[in-house]
Amino acid sequence: MTRFLGSLRMPSPRERHEWLLFVLLIGPNLALFAVFTYWPLIYNFYLSFVRWNFLRPTKPFVGLDNYANVFSSAQFWTIVTNTFVFAFFSVGLTLIIGLALALLINQPLRYRNTARAVLFSPVIMSGAVVAVVWSYIFDPRYGLIDQFLRPLGIASPNWLSDPAWAMPAVIIVYVWKNLGYAVVIYLAGLQGIPRELYEAARVDGAGPWARFWHVTLPGLSPIAFFLSVTSVLATFQAFDIIKVLTDGGPVISTTTLIYHLYTLGFVSYDAGQAGVVAVVLFMIMLVLTIIQIRYLEQRVNYG
Prior knowledge:
The protein is mostly helical. It has two domains: 10-47, no CATH class; 73-299, MetI-like fold. Helices cover 71% and strands 0% of the residues. It contains 13 helices and no strands. The protein has helices at residues 2-7, 13-47, 65-71, 74-105, 112-120, 127-137, 144-149, 163-191, 195-203, 208-236, 240-245, 257-266, 271-296. α4 (74-105) runs antiparallel to α10 (208-236) and α8 packs across α10 (208-236). The longest helix has 35 residues, at 13-47.
């Protein structure tokens, strides 16, 4: 004990200054992170065990009743299915079409920069504005799609009022809005692949398809991994386009977990069940992120 105490020493003025500077620089950020991230998570978890409708001051503890009510609802499992369908097709189409467009724009085209700017412009637009514009495009009588289909003798479907077409319509709009982001990120990755690798593959007799599989895809794997993780998280939180386009309908065909959370919390004023949905949504996103990091990262080639 004496030897241990003897080994201790007072920090030097320089060390104290560095520690104080660290606290001053990092402390405010940590405090904001705790207030706006950790505390809401903890408080939401608490709300999932109480009955509260925002109008009553009391919050009686109900245990697992909120969880039982949510999980016993057949509507809830339909909403979970909607969420996964929306996420799967939105992420898949964004990554695949984004890669194809990035490969096209990466060619020595005359208007490459213009095409990149046009593709990226929807990303910076408000989701509500995008949804309003597309609601006119989807109009079955006067919309732009109807104007193309009518001369072909094809009747335009009721995109936003037919349960069979509402989800595809929402996916189309979401992909259109976010496609430019994937294209720009892919382009950055393509321009970072050394030209020497393509020259070496060409000398070895590799054709365009072989160069794509053995040079381009491995070189883009870190970009694809990043986009897949961030895109999945973003789709599970997509709200504005669904709210404006379909309001979750028709017949909850486009209601996702985040929209269900909104309706429970701010339409039905049921904070307890809304808290349950928030916990479920958080756990799904956490599990999917862990799975992606664990299994997809193994296939990433960091060069």
